[in-house]
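Action item from last meeting closed. Structure (157 res):
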């Protein structure tokens, strides 16, 4: 490969055209190997983990929200000593919750369910367009008695 950084850079550019390391990286490597480093793996680092979105924090956030659904995002982050973005990720992606009228509530409707609602609504609209007069008498909901009652009262008056 070569005994200096210039020759090493040329060798990398020749053999790894698209992914060749930069000159400053190669200089850093040479300095490390001169200090008798023989391993190219990353060294262990101390400090907090890269991700705060772990099962333990997810459970804690869920407990906090169950206790007080009006809790603010920064209060959750301060309580658990995590970033607000991590608390937000836990609430939205892991617990499927969103803020509604200052309360955290679960998102109960999935995208598939939303699509099904759209399809059902379009079918109902087609039925209505075909037979406006008899639509309410033929359309059945979860409790059809109130629709029919309203329909028959409307006819009677």
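Sequence:
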């Amino acid at each position: 490969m070569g005994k200096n950084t210039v020759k090493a850079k040329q060798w990398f550019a020749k053999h790894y055209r698209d992914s060749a390391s930069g000159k400053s990286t190669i200089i850093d490597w040479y300095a490390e190997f001169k200090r008798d480093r023989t391993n190219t793996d990353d060294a262990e680092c101390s400090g907090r983990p890269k991700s705060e979105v772990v099962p333990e924090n997810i459970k804690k956030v869920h407990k906090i929200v169950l206790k007080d659904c009006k809790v603010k995002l920064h209060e959750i982050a301060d309580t658990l000593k995590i970033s607000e973005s991590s608390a937000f990720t836990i609430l939205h992606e892991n617990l499927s919750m969103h803020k509604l009228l200052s309360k955290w509530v679960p998102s109960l409707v999935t995208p598939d369910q939303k699509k099904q609602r759209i399809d059902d609504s379009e079918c109902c609209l087609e039925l209505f367009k075909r037979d406006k007069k008899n639509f309410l008498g033929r359309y059945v909901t979860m409790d059809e008695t109130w629709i029919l009652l309203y329909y028959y009262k409307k006819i009677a008056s």
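Note appended to the action item: The CA atoms of residues 77 and 85 lie 9 Å apart.
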